[in-house]
Design a protein that fits this description.
Blueprint (H helix, E strand, L loop, with lengths): L2 H17 L26 H14 L4 E8 L5 E7 L4 E7 L7 H15 L3 H9 E6 L4 H5 L9 H7 L12 E2 L2 E2 L2 E2 L5 E2 L31 H17 L4 E8 L2 E3 L8 E4 L23 H16 L9 E3 L10 H6 L4 E8 L2 H4 L4 H21 L16 E3 L1
Parallel strand pairs: 3-4, 3-9, 9-13, 11-12
Antiparallel strand pairs: 1-2, 2-4, 5-8, 6-7, 10-14, 11-13
Helix pairs in contact: 2-3, 3-11, 4-11, 8-11
Keywords: Hydrolase, Metalloprotease, Protease, Signal, Zinc
Cofactor: Zn(2+)
Family: Belongs to the peptidase M14 family.
Length: 395
């Protein structure tokens, strides 16, 4: 191709990228526009996270091990914190969306407890399980209190030259979107950048993609979590459980006027053994939907034990989804039991209101799963009870 033709093609791609408007279906973390200036100073910032993790490691006397697993696109550390030495592993991540912050606080509290407590429960968990936390995995987005990471399409093309004439992926944020202006500081929804093929290499023909198609591992944040997951597969054979901590907007429990405190789900891709899920047939032997439902039942039951309170106002998230580009969808196809935690309110419309109660909700749910896997009780639960968890409806 002649030089003028090459420049013309590249210019067209650049213009298209600058005008590209992403799809935002199931963008529960997207921030509503608000005039109100709501404080979020009570949430943990990146530098505080670093300090707190190493304090937990030191005070645990070797029970908690903190490592740098990778770097964000802007060069911030992505940490893993590991506690326990059991033969089943639970992987938990928070802040894949940088404006969804309660999960990070909950993870730090749990690491503090499991690393320092001499209670029989804590000892049993450390003996039976290995728990690996990835707190604030999208630290660049967290520092800006926004959903997306910080990365331009040009940077992706520099990392993957085969994409130099390719339009941006559908999850690229490059304009004004849900209260944030990405035009001068673009980024990606990292939670659409995963692929059930953990060895996938980006191909031009797979772009721009769509919400019901797999992602590409083009962001360093998704690459890092993928690599953590693969290393745990090599060590344990299977990542038994994967939990992903998020925020959502405001809903009520179906048939009531009770506001949903948190929504949960086991359902992010159709069962590969069904006609709808046949495109995932190569993962059919790995997929454990019943186990994912048992995990969610354990989570739900732990919160119902809190009695008639906000802690028991738990619903299902949307069902019958097909989101293989999410971490939950991709990892479930690799054999992990999964659950999403979606607490109510965004930082821009709810700030740090009810922070303590929402953090406690997440903690209680996580510990319900951890205890159930550690003592084996989760495997005895009836997966059909999942269908008795109420649905959510828009307020």
């Amino acid at each position: 191709m002649k030089k003028k033709q090459v420049l013309k093609v590249l210019s067209s791609v650049a213009i298209a990228a600058s005008l590209f408007v992403p799809q935002v279906s199931h963008a529960e973390g997207a921030k509503p526009v608000t005039e109100e200036n709501i404080s979020v100073n009570g949430f943990i910032q990146y530098e505080e996270l670093k300090k707190k993790l190493y304090q937990i490691e030191k005070s645990s006397n070797g029970q908690v091990k903190v490592e740098t697993a990778g770097k964000t696109n802007q060069g911030r550390d992505i940490f893993t914190a590991r506690v326990g030495h059991g033969d089943k592993v639970i992987l938990i991540q928070s802040e894949i969306h940088g404006n969804e912050k309660t999960g990070t606080v909950a993870l730090l509290n749990i690491l503090q407890y499991l690393g320092s407590s001499n209670s029989e429960d804590a000892k049993k968990i450390r003996e039976e399980l290995t728990i690996v936390a990835v707190p604030m995995m999208n630290a660049d987005g967290s520092e800006l209190d926004r959903r997306g990471n910080v990365m331009s399409w040009r940077e992706v093309q520099e990392q993957f030259p085969q994409l130099r004439n390719t339009l941006p992926s559908w999850n690229y944020y490059s304009g004004s979107l849900q209260g944030d202006n990405y035009s001068n500081n673009p980024g990606f929804d990292v939670n659409r950048d995963f692929n059930p093929n953990l060895n996938y290499v980006p191909k031009p023909e797979d772009f721009p993609g769509a919400t019901n198609k797999a992602g590409w591992f083009i962001t360093p944040e998704a690459q890092t979590v993928r690599d953590v997951y693969k290393s745990l597969q090599e060590e344990f054979g299977i990542v038994e459980v994967f939990l992903d901590l998020h925020h959502q907007n405001f809903y009520t429990i179906e048939g009531t006027d009770k506001e949903v405190t948190m929504s949960i789900s086991a359902d992010f891709v159709p069962d590969p053994k069904t006609p709808k899920g046949s495109k995932y047939s190569q993962y059919a032997d790995n997929f454990r939907f019943d186990f994912s439902r048992q995990i969610n039942v354990a989570l739900y039951n732990a919160l119902q034990e809190k009695g008639n309170s906000i802690f028991s106002n738990i619903s299902l998230y949307d069902q019958n989804l097909d989101l293989p580009g999410t971490a939950l969808g991709a990892f479930s196809l690799n054999g992990s039991g999964i659950a999403i935690f979606e607490v109510k309110g965004q930082t821009q419309n709810f700030g740090q209101k009810m922070k303590g109660q929402l953090v406690k909700t997440v903690e209680t749910g996580i510990m319900g799963v951890i205890k159930g896997v550690a003592d084996g009780s989760v495997y005895k639960l009836n997966p059909e009870d999942y269908d008795n968890i109420p649905n959510r409806v828009h307020k």
